[in-house]
Input
Amino acid sequence: MDWQDHGTILSARPHGENSMIVELFTADHGRHAGVVRGGASRKMVGILQPGNRVSATWRARLEDHMGSFTIEPLQSRTVILSDRLALAGLNATCALLRFTLPEREAHMRVFAASEALFDLFVEGGNWAADYLRWEMGLLEEMGYGLDLSQCAVTGTRDDLAYVSPRTGRAVSREAAGEWAPKLLHLPLFLLGQGPASGAEIAQGLRLTGFFLGERMAPDLGNRPLPEARNRLVDLLSRQG
Output
């Protein structure tokens, strides 16, 4: 059994004296792990950093074996290591991909969106809104997408202000009424209404965090959300 693909390293951990178990997010084979022989060498350690884009050949005697990788570098993203916020974004993205995606299952839309987000981390600048949209795309891909097209109660598209924590559907300000305190705030920039302020990004991360932690996580074995995401949210809130 063997295949060739390209993707980004999500994690790498020691295995034995000289090898590493590396987990990749690949274009055609999804999240996939394998052993890299000699991966603990000085040369390979630099290549096997999370976030780096690589070409990989996977081989195994049987399809259900872990198998081994032969890795070749395509793009180094280690410049992120010098940017605390970008590094937190990278770690959160890699951790959520490992948390949510089934092994060995292709998710092309998430792959393309993740590669674009990794490149934004490298470029620097203000990528917080892009990260939030990436989380929303991840929710949609995994079957927990939000419906922000119209009010769940009245069908209106006007003055949408909340999201129902039960259904994930938008609710207008008027329809919310006395139930408003029990609903989740909907940032207007997610509706294409104005720029993304720090306060709205914080609201958006609380929104996606609820559906990641309270809806998706229980279906994945009731594990807590990765601490890497919590650290990113904390850093972004301090900036806001």
